[in-house]
């Protein structure tokens, strides 16, 4: 059932071209130039009249939510807040019937997310679910929703569910933006054409980086700490890369917005600190170049995720992982793939139980 792979996690990483494709199937209709999403369309007035969208989630799904904020604010120009479900539910949040609350949950059973949703519903908000498990508790209590059709995810570390969540959030942002006029037709058309080609790019990334990342992983089996840095859309991708590493390899890792480095974490940097830096060409590249200079001046070990043909960051980095160029909004999907592989192989070489890491459960049904 692992399809010839050693672990479910690796199988699920490799399934991503298909799972992303499945998530878009029947929704992204490229030749008609439309995005069809009944859950959104049937309630378009709710979205149109919303004062704001509040995204609630936990863990990896919360990271997807953060990227959702960048997407929806950029393309639909609707204000978005992203909250940990556990914080939201206990802080007496201001919620009105003009709010749309989107819950993101792979399992659809996460206790804190469920409780936060119930609270939002009581206060009159319109509640929308992005779940992977069909007919799960969250899917059932929401007013509407979109399933991520990623297929069953068995590995505790979420991989294909995350990229499927990003796919749904991208579709929602483009659909709302097109509808409310913030995203013009020409831009909409070129963005959806690019989205349609993402599974192909993921396939390319899997084949071009798999062996390379395995080799890089060998050099970091003994690491005790890691920093992950990114800017813009790739700041949440850095958080997600760090979470993946810590949950399956038990190496302490932190994700940071690259510019925050100089407000504290830079003190940690010496020749023993590996730093994964996500540096695609589109998205504050020049700023990232300076961040890498600052790290190298302190002898940090840089593992850089860059676009093919990159020169500046690559010249300074100790390890270079190339991914194809995309518009900025798609880069977290593409950049996450080698980071999943990196976490996976470091954990495997450390002899960890990657599919069932200690102390963790696939769905967290207690608060
Ligand atoms: O099922 P959910 O998406 O609600 O789960 C949320 C988190 O428990 C989950 O993403 C967790 O952080 C993963 N193990 C991360 O890989």
TrEMBL record:
Coiled coil start-end: none
Catalytic reaction list: D-fructose 6-phosphate + L-glutamine = D-glucosamine 6-phosphate + L-glutamate
EC number: 2.6.1.16
Active site: 362 (for fru-6p isomerization activity)
Gene: glmS
Role: Catalyzes the first step in hexosamine metabolism, converting fructose-6P into glucosamine-6P using glutamine as a nitrogen source.
Protein name: Glutamine--fructose-6-phosphate aminotransferase [isomerizing]
Record localization: Cytoplasm
Organism phylogeny: Bacteria, Pseudomonadati, Bacteroidota, Flavobacteriia, Flavobacteriales
Species name: Chryseobacterium ginsengisoli
Enzyme category, top tier: transferase
Keyword tags: Aminotransferase, Cytoplasm, Glutamine amidotransferase, Repeat, Transferase
UniProt KW Amino-acid biosynthesis keyword: no
Span of domain SIS: 43-182, 216-357
Lipoprotein in keyword set: no
Chief location: cytoplasm
Record note on quaternary structure: Homodimer.
